[in-house]
Each structure stands twice: as structure tokens, then as C-alpha cells.
Design brief:
alpha/beta; Lyase, Ornithine Decarboxylase, Chain A, domain 1; TIM Barrel; 2 domains; nine-stranded mixed β-sheet; eight-stranded parallel β-barrel; 12 helices; globular; binds pyridoxal-5'-phosphate
Length: 414
Amino acid sequence: MTINTKTGRLYIENRAASDIAEEFGTPCYVYSKNSIETNFNRFKYAFGERKNLVCYAVKANSNIAIINILAQLGSGFDIVSGGELSRVLAAGGDASKIVFSGVGKTHAEINYALEQKIKCFNVESESELYRISNIAKELNVDADISLRVNPDVDAKTHPYISTGMKENKFGVDVEDATRLYKTATDLPNISPTGIDCHIGSQLTDIAPMRDAALKMVELTDALIASNIEIKHIDFGGGLGIQYEDETPIHQEQFVEMLLEVMGGREQEILVEPGRSIVGNSGVLLTTVEYLKHGSNKNFIVVDAAMNDLARPSLYNAYHHIDNILDKEKRPLKRYDIVGPICETGDFLGKDRELSVNEGDVLAIHSVGAYGMTMSSNYNSRVRVPEILIDDTHAHVIRKKESVEELFSNEQIAP
Ligand SMILES: *Cc1c(COP(=O)(O)O)cnc(C)c1O
């Protein structure tokens, strides 16, 4: 365990959370380097000698220090914007291991990705095929593409993070895929080299993932039979983690399922995990500003808010919250943990039993994925610092934003 409670005190690796809060202030995001590395390596070791590329989904946590840790372990990257491409390159990532997903790639983004010679575009529509072909022709290069296929399986996750059903904006229908691959083959400066899918996020049932994988290999066989050379199959990301009492899909279990479905097929296997690498590797430390006892509800008002961590208000997501110092034998009370923002939706946890005093520090767990990357400046709150713990060492990997930076791009009109 790299985030644990030793003798009633929370530790991130070998550093006490209380020290970190004192040294860097709160709120702050704190990550365990060891946890990130371990989660990535579990995918790699599970594949063993099998030809594979684990493409970390950058949008889960795009801090360049985290990208750099993964790049050093040989990771590939799944990006969804030109901004993410810049980050990966700045962090030392290898362009030839980057796949570019997303339904709305702009002309400028495609141009940039072609110049940088990324591995593959995960194409989401027929129009995008024409656009990539045109730009590749102008640049006189070949674009390797894969079609994001919508396998039409119900991933049984939150509707906002389900992406693999027909009524969804993502990907192309299986029935349409063969025709589109033929179109792609005929287009100038386009080489179809792969096929991909991503059916949703925070999946805790492996059955829909297996159904999707089966549809993918079936389609691959059909494409190969019509002389379309598929060199890699990208099965996407989406593995769920434990936030509350879910049973997560382990990396080994997922990879084993893929290897079984692949059988003797020799295509390179790509996966695009985000949450399962960084989710449980981070906590958000926040200080109790006020305790407020009402007639039928008690509130803990903390210094973190929905702008720092949007998941509770956005998806009604659960994050475990505890006091970093175990207040043993003091009475527990039921509280809603809320931030200072002027929105009723500004809560971080509801109906939790805690023992707290004003001034105590709380840890909000499992915030390494879709935490900092979804943060905003709402209410003119500065973005919080990010700290990476490596054994006993604490590295500031993002400085606390300054108030001047908040409006440095604005100007008063003449
Ligand atoms: C978000 C996303 C991922 C990563 O999903 P996780 O649930 O974080 O593993 C992978 N691929 C695509 C195309 C995505 O949009």
C-alpha cells in the first residue's frame, strides 16, 4: 500500500499527510509515484512478451511530471487534443507511441499531429477521414488511422461516462465500419492500420468489455478477409477502480480476458487506461474551516470546493473522506462536507460519519483521475498545487496558482 494509515495517521508513501499539509498548505493534490508506477507495470507485466502498447489516457491526469514518469516506463499515450499532444512531447513522451482520440479534431490539431508523426488517429466519423486525408496530402505524408467502432454494448456505468452505445456521439457503427474502411483505403494519404473502441469509464463488470472485445476481433477478421490490413487492435480504457465498495476489474484480469479473446491472432494489442493508473494514486487534502450544526443537518465547511474536485457535483460521485489524524474514541457525527462556493451543488461528500474539529485536515481519497484535470477557477479561486511523493520526498509538480495569474489574460476595454 502506498497510501495508508499507519498508527492512525495517513501516510502517502513514507510521508505523513500532516507534514505535507503543513508544508504546502491546503487544499492540495498529493500523488504517490510508487502507486502510479505499480498500476502501469501491472498492465505491462500482464502482457508479458505479447506485443502490446499501453497508452495512458492523458485526460485522467495530465500533469507533465506524471506523463514523464509513465514515459520513462515506456508508456504510450492516448490524447484528445492538441494541448495534450504538446504536454506529452514536453514531458518526454514518444510521438510514435501516441494515439489521438476525440470526435472533434480540428484542422490545426490534425496538422500538428501529422507533423509530429504520431502513431495513429482514432477516427470517429467519415468526415474526419476526408479531413485527415486532405491535410496529409497537403503535407505530403501518410496518416495511419484506426476507426473507433461503436460495439453497441451497454457498459452499465453512469450515463455521462458510457460511450459505447448506438445513441452515443462516439465512434461509428459496426455495420458501417467495413464500408468506411474501404473508403479509407481508397482515400489518398490514408493507411488504415488499426481498429479501436472505448465503451465507457469506471466499468466494474468485465462482461460488456468482453462482449465488445469479441465484436472487435470478429470485425478484424472480416476486414482482413476483405484485404484490409489491420496491424493493431485498441481495446480502449475504462477499468473501474474502488471508490466505495465496488469490486474493481484488475489489470491482470482485463489483460487475461483480452489475450483469451485474441486467441492466436497476432495483431499488436493497445489499451488506453486512465483512471486505473492514477485514480487511487492521489488524495486531496483540505482543511476544516467551520463546523456548522443545524437542526437536522450538520455541515463541515472545508477549503476545497467543486471547482477543485468536480466529480461529486458533476456525477454524484462518491469519494471516501477521512480525518488524516485518527480521532479515536471521540464521538462520530453525521455531516455533509461542503465547499465555500455559492452553489447548492458544491459538496464533496454527503452524510458521512466523522469526528472532526475546526482546523483539522481531511483527506478526500481516489482523486488522482479526473480531479485536477477537471478543476476550474470558478468563484475566482486559484488552482491548487500538486505534490508528488516519492518515498519520503515531496516534489511540487504544479505550483499554486497566483491571484495575478487568475486575470492576467484579461484587459479592460478602452
Ligand atoms: C477517457 C478515455 C479513456 C480513458 O478512460 P478511463 O476510464 O480513465 O480508463 C480511454 N480512451 C478514450 C477514447 C477516452 O475517451
